[in-house]
Amino acid sequence: MAEQEYDLIVVGSGAGALLGAIRAQEQGLKTLVVEKTDLFGGTSALSGGGIWIPVNYDQQNAGVKDDLETAFSYMKRCVRGMASDDRVLAYVETANKMAEYLRQIGIPYRAMARYADYYPHIEGSKPGGRTMDPMDFNAAKLGLDALETMRPGLPSTQIFGRMSMNAFEAHSMLSREFKSRFSLVGIMLKYFLDYPWRGKTRRDRRMTGGQALVAGLLTAANKAGVEMWRNAPFKELMQDASGRVTGAIVEKHGQRTEIKARRGVMLGAGGFERNQQMRDQYLNKPTKAEWTATPVGGNEGDAHRAGQTVGAQLHLMDWSWGVPTMDVPMEPAFRGIFVERSLPGCMVVNAKGQRFLDESGPYPEFQQAMLAEEAKGNGGVPAWIVFDASFRAQNPMGPLMPGSAVPDSKLHKNWLNNVYWKGETLDDLAAQIGVDAAGLKDSARRMTEYAKTGKDLDFDRGGNVFDRYYGDPRLKNPNLGPIEKGPFYAMRLWPGEIGTKGGLLTDREGRVLNTEGQIIEGLYCVGNNSASVMGPAYAGAGSTLGPAMTFAFRAVADLVGKP
Ligand code: FAD
Question: Residue 516's pLDDT is what?
Fold first, then answer.
């Protein structure tokens, strides 16, 4: 067994892990990153790259007023006692420092003035400004060779599966703002006219969202001199007689390699959503690894189990960052349905054809409602998203582009009765998807009525600022539209997630605690490998990446002894 030595070993290459590695190397620690798969970036590279940063440096530009006390009280209420005040406070106090650091290493962000916190009814929430979106990143800065080692973005989040758009542009297009036509033309022109770059790679030079974030981090890591290994799965932790973590065993070129860590090991190996056995053990049922939206072969809870072996305490293991997902053949993972469910003219029903939730509400609560509906015996798994011909013509839904651009006749032949179902009448559709017809017709009738009055008397859809972010602002209620004109469509939704949120419990510095609540010396944990500081909640868009990087930032400060 070969032996090597570093100051810090970082396991995984998601956003938290990379930020920790860069910061540590810059602070003088010789740092090694080990990544299990053949690509760096994990789920972070597929993500929107949004970070939830209360009291951030760009809020003033966005015209938003915020303060630490209000942010703390909001977050404390969100976490419902499932994360300590100490950690919540550490997050609120440090998040902006971390964001400033990102800017300093070449990854500036902009505050999204109109993207509301997810729980507008909770005191201290803001109607916008705490979520930040990364500025565009030029892939040439990373370089073509390094780009090849980075996980590419999801074609489903790009225009025609190729061209990047940022969160502002996506919102503008989905809200059908007039200016979005110009930005769409601009994006396409820029892409097609960039002959020099396109001659080298199909990947867009202009990187946005999680691609911008991870490309920026990889660029900074290379510049700082962090050593990074791919195809190098971490296997076990090494400890000395006192219980201090002293290194890790990593498989390199198929060989178990002992690597010593003079100062510590930082685990950032993501969640356990790709491990069916762990899902069965911990998550609410039914649960399937295939429903998840994260990369295949990555997050299988390896470092959760290694942490347990050295006595780490696990927390929040039955929680995930839930989102309804769809199975689209040929796509590498199930597709998260974040936005379309909020658009006016669609509804979600159970096997009885009844609505059971506010379709435009936060996605983690959406997934929980599906599971609860299933548990009640009403058939919430799968649930069905149903819409009519008018909706189909104007809006995207999962892989279906608006019918006005891509009519049914141009869709993949094998998608019918597989990705989408279609019936001339609601009775016809109900029979095809095995949903109660009377219930379905009644739900559509009610939704059509609510669209006229602008008030959803069942679930108050569109009744708050978060719901209304994605909708049609020209309507009385941006989230409500009629469902009355055949043919009718249905698509299947599964209770998936964008990662699990239970893991190794840490203190305010990201130090792992044992089952007695004592620090395991030399062991740090960040991101979905650790128990989330958000507890059961999703305070606002960016609630996973923000904390992952913030606690990595704090962990390095602890490692080098600088507050
Ligand atoms: P990952 O980014 O998944 O990284 C973990 C890495 O560890 C992987 O590369 C994995 O291969 C590696 N690994 C696993 N086991 C081992 C091992 N044994 N040895 C070595 N390496 C190992 N969150 C937000 O906050 N904002 C957003 O805008 C957002 N948008 C999203 C959009 C989509 C479509 C999706 C799918 C997710 C989104 N998320 C978002 C969620 C977010 O991407 C994840 O929660 C986050 O990336 C998790 O970061 P992580 O570092 O913990 O894990």
Answer: 98
